Amino acid sequence: MADKQCNVALIGSKFMGKTHSNAYLKVGKFFDLPVDPVMHTLVARDPDATASFAKRWGWQHASTDWEKVVRDDDIQLVDVATPNNTHAPMAIAALEAGKHVACEKPLASTLDEARQMRDAAAKADGKTLTWFSYRGCPALALAQRMVAKGKLGRIYHVRANYLQGWAGPDVPLLWRFKGETAGSGAHGDLGAHIIDAARFVTGEEVTEVCGSVEETFIKEREIPEGEAGNIKGGTGSTGKKGPVTVDDTVAFLARLSGGGVATFEATRMATGNQNANRIEVNGEHGAIRWDFENMNVLWYFNAADDPETAGWQRIMCTSADAHPYAHAWWPDAHVLGYEHGFINAAACFFQEIGGEKPEVPMPDFNDAYQTQRVLEAALLAARNRAWVNLNEVK
Amino acid sequence: MADKQCNVALIGSKFMGKTHSNAYLKVGKFFDLPVDPVMHTLVARDPDATASFAKRWGWQHASTDWEKVVRDDDIQLVDVATPNNTHAPMAIAALEAGKHVACEKPLASTLDEARQMRDAAAKADGKTLTWFSYRGCPALALAQRMVAKGKLGRIYHVRANYLQGWAGPDVPLLWRFKGETAGSGAHGDLGAHIIDAARFVTGEEVTEVCGSVEETFIKEREIPEGEAGNIKGGTGSTGKKGPVTVDDTVAFLARLSGGGVATFEATRMATGNQNANRIEVNGEHGAIRWDFENMNVLWYFNAADDPETAGWQRIMCTSADAHPYAHAWWPDAHVLGYEHGFINAAACFFQEIGGEKPEVPMPDFNDAYQTQRVLEAALLAARNRAWVNLNEVK
Amino acid sequence: MADKQCNVALIGSKFMGKTHSNAYLKVGKFFDLPVDPVMHTLVARDPDATASFAKRWGWQHASTDWEKVVRDDDIQLVDVATPNNTHAPMAIAALEAGKHVACEKPLASTLDEARQMRDAAAKADGKTLTWFSYRGCPALALAQRMVAKGKLGRIYHVRANYLQGWAGPDVPLLWRFKGETAGSGAHGDLGAHIIDAARFVTGEEVTEVCGSVEETFIKEREIPEGEAGNIKGGTGSTGKKGPVTVDDTVAFLARLSGGGVATFEATRMATGNQNANRIEVNGEHGAIRWDFENMNVLWYFNAADDPETAGWQRIMCTSADAHPYAHAWWPDAHVLGYEHGFINAAACFFQEIGGEKPEVPMPDFNDAYQTQRVLEAALLAARNRAWVNLNEVK
Amino acid sequence: MADKQCNVALIGSKFMGKTHSNAYLKVGKFFDLPVDPVMHTLVARDPDATASFAKRWGWQHASTDWEKVVRDDDIQLVDVATPNNTHAPMAIAALEAGKHVACEKPLASTLDEARQMRDAAAKADGKTLTWFSYRGCPALALAQRMVAKGKLGRIYHVRANYLQGWAGPDVPLLWRFKGETAGSGAHGDLGAHIIDAARFVTGEEVTEVCGSVEETFIKEREIPEGEAGNIKGGTGSTGKKGPVTVDDTVAFLARLSGGGVATFEATRMATGNQNANRIEVNGEHGAIRWDFENMNVLWYFNAADDPETAGWQRIMCTSADAHPYAHAWWPDAHVLGYEHGFINAAACFFQEIGGEKPEVPMPDFNDAYQTQRVLEAALLAARNRAWVNLNEVK
């Protein structure tokens, strides 16, 4: 356990409120950190639900007043896990109050807001983290490390898909299908992850979007009774339909700064896939493949192998001595799950806060802003039916 | 065995000469056809090599004069398995001589030639076949059958990749890297297959290309001594370099006639992949996935399954009673290989020639011309950096 | 959160001390239980290490005196996570003191002790749990549920392997290789799990062992300096060798009460495997397959499926509405890891303690005693080179 | 093509008659052999069917008199592809007539006959081959080559299963279920293959059978109308039942000459499996895995790999330069099928006949006799409920 502690205020108590609470609960027990988190204050809108959530998860305090909490002297770290359109005001206020700030992805609901957050972070003393939690998966972090070591050499191809299939025509008009509540559809929700993953693993930037398709396959859905809280949605039926105002899918092509070609596709309509966050990278000296649905495994091809035995290698990324994060966990092949991505990412952030170099690079607000630029460029390309040079997207 | 026979003249004795000879050798032994092929005449350029090849494979005659052979009254079927830029004159001459004509893919090296072939076929009495031999794989044929029956419903997504990885920077300047000999790079060689597969399986047409990237990663290669006959190339080294004049990869996005979105990628630079001809189709009621590297297996997801047990099903497509072509072969899971795609496709063509409905639809010249239009549209989009409506490509 | 609470005393602070602490930490946060655990007292041998572990994990008290703690009126549940040869005295004392008792597997280091524990449990008021934690994996629990529903029908075959490969000849003489400290080798450590899994999933008992091989491949190993605390072992070398006094592997054949045939194999010498806890069950109406290394997936074959599409189905066992435990966790395919087996098993035990029917049946001491009988029968068969009828093993 | 030729007489025209005919048809076209086969005479029982089969497949002559044909001076090679109980007289007669002799597996229906065949071969001048055709699969042959090179080191474990699932209770009483026609059930049919595979790959012998179970799950089946010719069986129903007189499964444990432990299981009742001929071998330095259902792939684990990237490697065994048989076939990952096992095995036999060392070792009658001894030992162990030392089985 660390000598130093860091009081955390978490804003948000839905799906991400739960994953983050769990991360704070566990990270100091498994990792030897320079600073351990203290679960100080939970902030959400409904007083009773907030108090109840805080009690269950062991938050010491509960509040409904985020503006007060982000300025509270007792707080060192503010974690924003609210809808995308609230990220900017909360995060910027916290930065201006001198806090470290963590924020859910995508960084913001517009590129303007993302740029403001990036600028606020640049001026502030606090550290920033954007929760691209898949960087906390050992297999993806290993891919990054291998590329950084030169094991793939020059990158020719990136194929990054995030395929979900839950949004069939019978799913009602949840908040996730409405622009005003969700900010974005599959593109912002899923596409942001794979753009980050491609940038993270390759260490390269998208320089040009060379084609893009945005599509809403189901243009109207049935309006559910009440508000739907979960991904699968509503309880009753109103018999009325309303328009879907976000995308079901965005797919786009890109060129990378190292000369490679990348394809990206994010969708909720890939029937049969549940959480297939997949990336393949082919380089001069080797290749890697990953699919979150089998998250502990990284596939690797070494082009220099003896042809007799060369082939895709299934690396079970759980070796304490050899793989990112694995030292903190269980013996070989005693595998990790979804939640560990958050815990591992949190460990890196507390390493940074404590003045150490994080064992895996995590995205600060500037880094997440670069991802947001690509999201924007892909939309511009789709809507203008034109190539978009990233230099023009700022 | 059939009462009727059909004398075949095959032009070409390289890789495809071998796959086609093998198909004629075997198809009548495994299938009960209305017409059996007779291996009548082999045509190639070098007299000695042609005679030797003919003897080995059991061709009754050998010739170096294709123009004579395609008009020979003893011949009923002419099979063109030569470089792409010779397809048009040979096939058109054979059609005009009243023959049935089979031709390797892509149909031609230019859209103009392809259109001329299509027109010649429309006027002629003979049947035509384009050797998109993967339609002869039971799994892909089953996918087509399932879509045709409505098992997938409305198609949302097609993801079609043909990934090979043999063309690293050390591979010399083979004929396959030169426009004048190869006609096209990965796009014509591999891309043609996945465009055909997407059209075949979905029964839909590409209506628009919404972005495309064409890239030659290795712009110069070492000139080998002598001419390289095989895919891996040269024997000696000249120490000199020459320019690569075909693409290493083309990737493009498209919209389909049923409203779906498709991504296509053909490449020789996907290190680690050898012959990963892959297609995924997601529809309203289900989905399928296929990868040629495990060619006997079709993956299927049925969205109507009980959630308790729903999941991707691994269909081993070898059931004589239930799967295309399987009746002609071995017991369950006594699997087929690459060559059987050609044999099965040949069976369908002889069914057609004999007046029967083929058990799986095969692409005639008009059908292959539609695929050629998509190839062309993808190139135009890449070169003009603009979307291309298929109506404008004729 | 529950109204009622249950004070827990955990004895043991090594690998299993960690997995159990983590389970108590989390189970009440994810599950809605009739009784929530309170992390009351940690017991271990070394005072400083015990205090430190307790502080890190949030145990309210630390003690080195298990005999006192198991009789402490403040404690309702005693959890025994110590070496096998200490299970019996601790568990029996706790039962006699009226506590609920959880105990690590195998139940004991001898059949005699296991029988005494079973008898003590039969007389006591407390509930008992044996930590066959893989019953807490949703996929294995789903297999059990499907068999119980009759989806497999009459069972013909069980194939249960637990393959690890860490014990190559260079691994020194760790405590795990010595009978006096480990009690048993692969058989007791890994074999116990697969016997439990086979009994759990099929609901059948082993009636006869029809052959068995026990082998220690590496008969001597280098004695390490100091005592090795972890699975991989020692720090320095003494240059001396000592005898290995436990098995590296036991494999055996068995008949099941429903007439089926089972093969079991547990080993630490299956190079290439890390934690391949695998089971396959073939029945009249269907079959299942599972491998812990991809723990969230259950493979299912339904013999009644349409032959056109029949095939092994990959069930991702994460559907809140359809799969065991999944309601407590994340959205579809946001997968679980090794530790969740313990948390889920704990949830079932607290359901029982609170008077509810557990959502998945967990093994009490009598159930674990049946598994211990099979372990014993397999050893007898190997050592006597004879078949062993289970009626003779009591 | 070879200068020399070898006239072949094939006895049998059912399933194996077809696979062997196909092998003779193709082997000389793909391989450069010292001797090419000539399809001289086909022998079977029914005159019309024999003539028809011979015509279809290109056999020059047809006969119903095997005794005459095996002594015919024009014949150099006799191939026995008839029911097991006819192997001995036919093969011995042919050997005595000075022919080369190939024979289907298992070598004979009794150990006595097998020994007589072995002895006859020892005295004769002709070469012998037993059609353990899976040695003709490149992946299995690569496994053998790798073990022979020492890549696995000392062998600890062999796990060999041959799982089929076609024999559910509704399948009628086919000839395969009757001892008098089939000679043996799963054990002789499938078990023979995996015993051969284990011996072939490891180069070791079974020294002891340490337990064995023989079981006929379905003891009576409905008697079909007429005789059933294929694996799936009958056409009509008689409403009567008759006894099954062969095993549905045999599973046994064994010790190997190098000190390893092996498990074997052959069955027709492993629902969900169609032709899962699987072998896993774990050694000190590495491990291999193979499953015929994905026959072109060998999985390999190299224990000396860097832990960062170590993992099971998927070797696609199609590299002309590096893998057995691949030089004769297609480019990388243009995969082979079931039939190629026979063609490749035939190539090796003609290499031997022509005085060359075969590229992969094939089993002569003595080799197949060793496999037959293991088959016998496993039966003795099951029936006597006792360990069996192989020295006692001669």
How would you describe what is shown here?
4 copies of one chain form a homotetramer. By secondary structure, chain A is of the alpha/beta class. Chain A is 31% helix and 26% strand. Chain A is built from 10 helices and 17 strands. In chain A, strand 4, helix 4 and strand 5 form a beta-alpha-beta unit. In chain A, helix 1 packs across helix 9, helix 4 runs parallel beside helix 5 and helix 6 packs across helix 8. The radius of gyration of chain A is 21 Å and the shape is globular. Chains in contact: A-B, A-C, A-D, B-C, B-D, C-D. Chains B and D meet through helix 1, helix 2 and helix 9 of B and helix 1, helix 2 and helix 9 of D.
A few lines on this structure:
Four copies of one chain form a homotetramer. Chain A is of the alpha/beta class and 394 residues long.
Please state the structural category of chain A.
Answer: alpha/beta
User: Low-confidence runs of chain A (pLDDT<50, min 5 residues)?
Assistant: 228-234
**What oligomeric state do these chains adopt?**
homotetramer
SS summary, helix count of chain A: 10
- Main beta-sheet strand count, sense and barrel state of chain A: 9 strands, mixed
Strand order of the largest sheet of chain A: 16-15-14-13-7-12-11-8-17
In helices, the fraction of residues of chain A equals: 25-40%
Tell me, rounded to a whole number, the average pLDDT of chain A. Answer: 96
Beta-strand residue percentage of chain A: 25-35%
Rg of chain A over CA atoms, rounded to whole Å, is 21 Å
